[in-house]
């Protein structure tokens, strides 16, 4: 019911070699290691390097929460909504986004590029291409767009959608992430630590589609 219950459960699991279940239980586990002298008590564990570069959001999730986040962002920042049904080609969608982003990445506001759609459009795309092919199309397009954004100087990138996040991380060649401060429950900023190659120095916020408040795409860059 409350975070105090998660801390109590953490204490109860102190002697367990293996704990499974919802991720919330992790909140109560670190104190067990502190009590055993195995974990330093520090207040800067989530500190990340200073942010740099332009800001962007990629959205592939079609969840209700993500659609609401796009809707609010549309009132405040430039938003490109791709239409995979009209253009069922990943390379063409990526090219459309690259043309659109020209001249929009130098300001103090993020840009939002979305391939999200309401349920009826998702159903139509899946009927036209098949469920797996439709998902793969969107993932390939957004992964290519992510690479283009980073190449153009984006240093802070929010990605909405679990499968989309996986495709972006794989395309960018990210091997490790340092976990930083929380933006909304369950969604922290992270820092890509791929050594010696791009996108070293990239700040990433990877979220499941249903996570985050309605203003997530706006407030993430002030967190």
Write the layout of secondary structure elements.
Elements: H1 3-12, H2 30-35, E1 54-59, H3 64-73, E2 79-81, H4 90-101, E3 111-114, H5 119-129, H6 131-151, E4 154-160, H7 162-172, E5 177-184, E6 187-192, E7 203-207, H8 216-219
Parallel strand pairs: 1-3, 1-4, 2-3, 4-7
Antiparallel strand pairs: 5-6, 6-7
Radius of gyration: 19 Å
What fraction of residues sit in β-strands? 15-25%
Overall strand count: 7
Structural class: alpha/beta
Q: Can you list the strand order of the major beta sheet?
A: 2-3-1-4-7-6-5
Shape summary: globular
The largest pleated sheet is described as: 7 strands, mixed
SSE sequence, one letter per element: HHEHEHEHHEHEEEH
Number of H- or I-type helical stretches: 8
First-last Cα distance: 26 Å
Q: Unreliable stretches, pLDDT < 50, 5 or more residues?
A: none
Percent helix: 25-40%
Mean model confidence by pLDDT: 91
Structure commentary:
This protein is α/β, with parallel strands linked by helices. Helices cover 38% and strands 17% of the residues. The protein contains eight helices and seven strands. A seven-stranded mixed sheet has the order 2-3-1-4-7-6-5, sandwiched between helices. Helix 4 runs parallel beside helix 6, helix 5 packs across helix 6 and helix 6 (131-151) crosses helix 7 (162-172). It is globular, with a radius of gyration of 19 Å. The two termini are 26 Å apart.
